Amino acid sequence: IWEVLSIGTTSPRRQAAYNALKRIPALTPVGIAPLPQARLEASVAHAGAMKDERIRALRAGADLFRRHPEIVEELGGGLRRALKAARRIPDLGRASTLRLLLFSSGTPVLALDEHAFRVAQRLGYGKDHEKAVRALRSTRRAVVAESGRELETLRMLTQYFTHNGLATCTQVAPHCAVCPLARDCECLRRQ
Length: 191
Prior knowledge:
Layout: H1 2-6, H2 11-23, H3 29-32, H4 37-44, H5 51-67, H6 70-75, H7 79-86, H8 94-104, H9 114-122, H10 132-147, H11 151-167, H12 186-190
Helix pairs in contact: 2-4, 7-8, 9-11
């Protein structure tokens, strides 16, 4: 639900939509499935554009979990099994899938979305010259090699890198003067 509400919107809008669903309560497949369309639309509208796509994704996810309750157990069944189960969930990209595994099933993986990946790359993790998929993989490996595979550490790094990438280490005109990671930034050193 968090991922569906996050796409193409701001954090405050996503949070408003999430809070509206929480008040109903409709934060589970069991809560979403019977929800009248008008009520779901009113809650999801807080996220802004793409309301119809969000509703379709939420309904599809709720339907999947209703038809396949075993998926919950599969998500907690080791990395390979959890990845296979997560791929069955509609509208999840790679970063969203890894976040689902990290936060919902407790699988120790590092979930780097585009913002977190940018921060990690600028800090010097991974190899700049690699193609996108390889670069993402090598960056994740480099961060995990240094930080370890402890679940809480990976959760914290995922959240912190994403937040830093959205608020400070932006794609264009990053705010290096106020960045708390500036002293460790390889990108800043090269300038």
